[in-house]
Amino acid sequence: MKYCVGIDLGSTTTKAVVLGEDGRVLGRGITNSRSNYEIACGVAVSEALISARFGLLEEALEREHVDADRRHAQLEGLERGFREQQYRGDLGELRRVMEGYLAAGDYGAEERKAVDETLAVMLEESARLYGEGSSRKSDFFRDLAGSRYLDLVGAFARERGLSYDKLVGLYDKAILDVENTEADQGSFAARIRAALTVLPEPDAALTRAIERATAVELAKAGSVGTGYGRATLPFAKEEIRSEILCHGLGAHAMFPGTRTVLDIGGQDTKAIQVDENGIVTSFQMNDRCAAGCGRYLGYIADEMNMGLHELGPMACESKRPVKINSTCTVFAGAELRERLSLGEKREDILAGLHRAIILRAMSLLARSGGVHDEFTFTGGVAKNPAATGALATLIEENYGRRTLNISPDSIYTGALGAAMFARREWSRKEPVGAA
Amino acid sequence: MTPKTRDAATAQKDDSQLRQKEMIAAHYSRLARTHETGERSVYTFVPGNLTELIRNFDLLPVLPEINALQSAMRGKSKEYIAAAEREGHSEDVCTYVKCDVGMKRAGNVGPTGERLPDPDLLLLSYTGCFTFMKWFEILKREYDCPVTMLHVPYQGEGEITKSMRDYVVEQIKKKVIPALEKASGKKYDEDKLKEQLRRSAQAEDDLVAVLESAKHKPSPIDAYFGGVYYIGPIFTAFRGTQDAVDYYRLLRAETEEAVRAGRGPITPSGELKEEKYRLVVEGPPNWTNFRQFWEMFVDEGAVCVASTYTKVGGVYDAGFRHDPDRPLESLAEYCLGCYTNLNLPSRVEMLERYVREYQADGLLINSIKSCNSFSAGQLMILREIEERTGVPGGFVESDLVDPRYFSGANIKNRLESYFQMIEQKRQGVTA
Amino acid sequence: MTSQSIAALVESANQLYRDYDFTSVKEWKARTGGLAIGFMPIYVPRELLHAQGCLPVGVMGGGDDLEIIRGDAYYQSYICHIPRSTIELGLGGKLDCLDGMLFPAICDVIRNLSGMWKLEFPGKLSRYLDVPQDFEDDMGGVFYRAELEELSADLARRGARPYDAEALRTSIAVYNRLSALVRELYQLRRDEPWLVPTAELYCLLRAATIWPVEDAILHLETYRDLVRADASRQPMDQARVILAGSFCEQPPLGLIKTLERSGCYIVDDDFVQVHRWLVQPVSTAGDPLDALVSAFLHHAMDSPTRYCGEATKGVELVQRVAAAAAEGVLLCAPSFCDPALLDQPMAVDALEAAGVPWTAFKYAENNGQFQVIREQAGTFADSIKLWSGV
Question: How far A416 CA sits from the closest chain C CA (Å)?
Fold first, then answer.
């Protein structure tokens, strides 16, 4: 079957969405962005295709009349097995690269041994990492492997009097290479079959469904890329669309009633107005400084020694938010420390900070033409309950009641819009093929 | 772009461009030789400049704004601004001023590499920009020469009243002319002024014809990036001279020829072959990355068909002409009528007219950090124009001569989004 | 008892100027049926408004009280704060009780705001009040008189009483009393700064732009008498400083308190200049419009907004330092304030030539954090005290 893909190369993550001929979302993929844009895009697309295959697999299971509960259990088990296979493959690549460095650089036998043992433990642990009921802090290999490697190698360094910094440096070098080398993504079929073997109770229907899903030939019919402020996107010029347009169209696809879109990402904030067809009629972006963007919350989290995702819930505890007028990223730390030293409560300060960010967004919204019904909020900050709470309040106060849409897949908004542009181009070229 | 196409572009320079280059070079070299020739100079500003009157006394005008923008185009402004900021000038304020202060510190070397003369008179035409007043207060401390203030009141109510005109005329008579007489040692010659103003009006006719040629499709000119070259002579030292008359006649002939031939404007990358977007532009250009900025338009097939910046030294396309029969009155009306002296509703009306008459696809605002006279209120102008005309507005930010405020990637990103938005609207394709 | 009365008076002034619903103005209008005309900082000829039965109402931004939501949509980040809070007040309906707004010639931002006001509030009187930068009677004077006549006619068209010379003479006399009183308080503060804390004076001066002038006079007299009688106010070891640069966007009260708490006596300042702009009583003899014009041309304060062609910038500031026996100058300008910041290097030159210590910092009307300024002003005050002790 033919598909179209949209890729959104963001400052922190790269996303891909795959659409089928009928315009249905077949799969979504995400990876961390890296210096080699092409590879980041390649990984995101291959992840999206994997998720598309899982979708096909689910359809095949339905056709086998497997009931929903069993289907989900099987798929869940398969996916864990599949991810474990992926993880082990990546570990193998990491080992290969590290061995290269160990052989070439001035590493002693003890250091080599520590690395060797660390990687061995990590390989051994993979089953547990992806075991039933397990949860992982990140979906990205760099984070998963990194945190475990640091723990293990740290312990070895202490026990054996080795330089921890040197061993960490080795990982940092190696992971960059791993991430920026065209990896053998491994065929879906091989990995899913390997995953199948570890399932406790394989059955014939599942095997048949897997064979059917893997047999489908996926052929790319079109592709569009987008991304913020990149001087060079790894796409042909005619395959690039502005992220504003992609975002507007993506939001429209998720919520067809959308007229106003707000996106607060890591580095920038966008306010977009779209018409009933998802066509952008006006937009505004934050000016040169990144005040009030997601990154600001990142600084605050670092300053408070908290996780980014913990900020919102804590801010929601506030009964008396403090008033904060500045969202200057540079001064965020100083302002925070002063507030704390004045004895103000952390939750009250955080509530004030969230409100300050949303105030910045409100002014961009006003600049772009206001807030019309329906209103769709996207980007990383849309996951933050304190931010969405403040936004909802301020919008109601200033524009009246509005339907507020937030999709759990909002991170894919831009990629979805890009995929729709790709599909549009495709249907223009091959009108018969499109539904 | 490859060096080869650059050569091709250079080769495409029109005769008028070469002529202009010669005129400006000659003027600067004349300035550089004043210590030998004994000629005297007057520093003054572009908006509300009294060039004919200055030259009536055979004085040579020097325009600090032009020096500043030339410094930026030569890549000097960064160090000049840094020098001024080291002296205590705030990073918040106009970078033209700081660039000028820094240039003075570095020996007052002009665009041709030669030293500019110290002024024999500072003629402060305070027109449409508050900073001008502060600028010359600062310069007055630098130079041991007299200063004369010509206060040009603002068109707050959107019109030039008799009292405003009288005020300016009285100042010209009682302050400016005596100051020029003193600086030059010559007497005011009204017959000569009438002759100068007649030449001004002639050049103004031709300039308007050139600017309005952009109503053709495709437009033979770029009225913003290219426009700054076209206004060069008449906005600076040449209004009222035969040189200016000849230059604008030549430019007009070339433009008319381009219209006949259906040619597009000449850009840094050569002739623009396909006009995809027609834009009206509000706000001054950025000078540090002028070419890079222009190429962002050229790459997308965007042509600026009208701009307000090319009206800071006179809004001739609205009908104003210098009038030899009313010499001082028409000079006063000229000063009062410059673009930066118009109130916001008048600016909106002018832009609305441009969008309609030039059949523009959009209004693009280049918001300049330095220039509050232009920038304060531009976001409102943008919305007003969108509402009145239905064309989409675009908004980018940069600065006049401070390279720290030019973010190429950011501007390119916004421009591309903007052009694609226009394109998408035009197609009206449904999702 | 005295202290309590002072506190109550200051607090009522504080509440009045921070009442962005302008309740007192609405009450005045209901009572008198007159027009209320807003004006922005520095100077407008309130005498003329008063003579035509109007209430001049100072609109000096939204301070640190107002949350800016729509105002930022009108201004880029590199433009000062007062226009955004002013437009926020307007869009929020807070200024609906005003029949008009006057925008004095302060700078390009306020100038352009006058046009924005015309577009945003087409039904209201909105005027840019251009003032001459030529100070000769036969040029700037003639022009300014015509400006005032136009303003007067515009007011009358909007329903104000028509111009009457006798009424204007009376109003000039009333405002002469107000400015004499304000000058007296400034003198008192110079002489005995512990009696007149600037944080108090500031609240009263702000309120005095909103109170009807007759009330303002009463309140200021009361304040003067109370502080003179308050024996609890005793001198402290503080540095005597002049604060310069805050003539348009007014600082938040917290900033003034911070400066005083960090060891400074502010013995002269640029706040709420409208009361003191004309440095001498305006003549009540002859043609009263001419008298206003002449006072503006020949007896106005020095200001960064007023042309000073003869390289004498900063001379007046140095004179003020001497007159106030000040030990240093705080150059305290709003961020992105063109007139103040462009003036600053010239002011610094003059101060340094005269050997006057100075320090500089910036603020915005909505600043809530003063830690850095407290440190800076405290260090400055300490260093002055150390020098003066040598």
Answer: 29
